[in-house]
Specification:
The chain is built from eleven helices and 13 strands. The chain is of the alpha/beta class and about 325 residues long. The chain folds into two domains: about 210 residues, Rossmann fold (3-Layer(aba) Sandwich), CATH 3.40.50; about 70 residues, Alpha-Beta Plaits. The strands form three sheets. It has a six-stranded mixed sheet with strand order 5-6-7-3-8-9, with helices on both faces. A four-stranded antiparallel sheet has the order 11-12-10-13. β1 and β2 form a beta hairpin. α4 runs antiparallel to α6. It starts with about 30 loop residues before the first strand and ends in an 18-residue tail after the last helix.
C-alpha cells in the first residue's frame, strides 16, 4: 500500500486528554538544565534548558544532525552528558533503576540478540516494563503482520520500525521515546501507527517524545513542538497556540499585497502571477470579507509550512517569535 495518507487515515484532532481516565498527571515530567554534549571537539548539544510537563505528546523537530537523537539518548541515560542535568519526576536517571524502568527508547539502529525472534522478544519484554500490555503487543504484531519466527536481525527496515513501535507502545512506559519511527513504513503502516498511538495514549496517559520529518502527517497528534537548530533549542511551543496566529493568503500578487499590507510576512512564494504568503495577525470577519472582495483565499497554515518558515528545517535563524513559545 503506497498511496498517500488521507484525512480518513489521520487520527482525530488533539482531544485525546478530554475525559479520559487517569488524565490528571501526578508526576513532575522532564526537567533539563544547562545540558551540553560534545563528542571530541564537536559540540552536538549546547546549554539546553527545557521543562516538559507529563502526559503530553511532544514533536521533536529539526533537520538531520541537530542533536535530536542525542537529546533523547541522554534523557534515557543511554549516553552521558558533557555538562548539565536531567531530572525525570524530580530524580536523575543516572544509575536509577526506579526512573529508568519508567522509560522506553528503542533506537532506530537497535541491536538485538542475534538469536532472538519476535516470539522470544515478546516473552522477555514484560520483565523490563512494569506496565507491559501483552494485548497491545499482540494487536500490533497482527496489524503490522510481523513474522514471529524470523530472527530479528533478518527483518526488513520496515519490519524493524514496526517492531520498535510495537515494543514502545506495548511497554506503556510513562516516558516513551520514538526516534523517526516511520522509517521504511508505507502509508498504510504509518496510518496504523498513528491510529494505535492515539488509542494507546487515550487509554493509558503517558509522555511521548517523537522525532519526525513527516510533520504534517503527525501534526494532529502533537500537543507541543520542540524545535532544534544547530544543537540549540530554537523553540518550545504549544501547537494550537502558534498555528492559530498564522494564515496562508493566496491569490494574484497585487491583490495579496492589498490584503496583507502592514502585516508581518513569515514567508512568500510565487508561481507565475499567483502569490502565496504566510502572514501573522490576519484574523476576523473583516479580513475574510475583504479577501472575498479581492478574490483572495485565506487558509490555515500547516505545521510543516510554519516550521519551515521559522527556519528550523535549515540553518537560517528565525526572524520572528510567536506567542505561546516557552523558549
Amino acid at each position: 500500500m503506497t498511496e498517500g495518507v488521507t484525512d480518513a487515515h489521520r487520527p482525530h484532532p488533539r482531544n485525546h486528554h478530554l475525559g479520559r481516565p487517569g488524565s490528571t498527571p501526578s508526576a513532575d515530567g522532564i526537567t533539563i538544565t544547562g545540558l551540553s554534549k560534545s563528542f571530541g571537539r564537536t559540540e552536538v548539544l549546547h546549554e539546553i534548558d527545557l521543562h516538559l510537563p507529563p502526559d503530553r505528546v511532544y514533536g521533536l523537530l529539526g533537520s538531520n544532525g541537530v542533536g535530536k537523537t542525542t537529546l533523547m539518548s541522554i534523557i534515557c541515560h543511554h549516553i552521558f552528558p558533557s555538562s548539565g542535568q536531567v531530572l525525570i519526576d524530580g530524580q536523575p536517571p543516572a544509575e536509577n533503576a526506579g526512573v529508568l524502568e519508567r522509560t522506553c527508547f528503542i533506537h532506530e539502529d537497535q541491536r538485538w540478540n542475534d538469536d532472538f525472534t519476535l516470539d522470544i522478544l515478546l516473552r522477555v519484554a514484560p520483565g523490563f516494563f512494569a506496565r507491559w500490555s501483552s494485548a497491545t503487543a499482540e494487536n500490533l504484531v497482527g496489524r503490522f503482520k510481523l513474522p514471529r519466527r524470523t530472527k530479528l536481525k533478518k527483518m526488513s527496515r520496515g519490519q524493524r520500525s514496526a517492531l520498535a513501535i510495537t515494543i514502545s507502545l506495548a511497554s506503556r512506559a510513562p516516558y516513551t521515546f520514538l526516534d523517526e519511527p516511520y522509517l521504511g513504513l508505507d502509508a498504510g503502516a504509518r496510518s496504523i501507527f498513528y491510529t494505535e498511538l492515539l488509542n494507546e495514549i487515550s487509554e493509558v496517559p503517558r509522555t511521548v517524545i517523537m522525532s519526525t520529518h513527516l510533520i504534517d502527517e503527525a501534526a494532529s497528534l502533537m500537543e507541543d513542538i520542540i524545535l532544534m537548530r544547530n544543537g540549540r533549542l530554537a523553540m518550545h511551543a504549544d501547537v494550537d497556540s502558534i498555528t492559530s496566529q498564522v494564515s496562508i493568503v493566496r491569490g494574484l500578487g497585487d491583490d495579496v499585497d492589498r490584503l496583507i499590507g502592514g502585516l508581518e510576512v513569515l514567508s512568500r512564494q510565487s508561481m507565475g502571477r499567483i502569490e502565496s504568503a504566510m502572514v501573522r495577525g490576519l484574523a476576523g470577519g473583516e479580513a475574510h470579507h475583504r479577501a472575498d472582495e479581492l478574490h483572495v483565499s485565506i487558509e490555515p497554515a500547516g505545521l510543516q509550512e510554519l516550521v519551515a518558515a521559522l527556519g528550523v528545517l535549515d540553518a537560517t535563524p528565525a526572524a520572528t517569535t510567536l506567542e505561546g513559545a516557552h523558549s
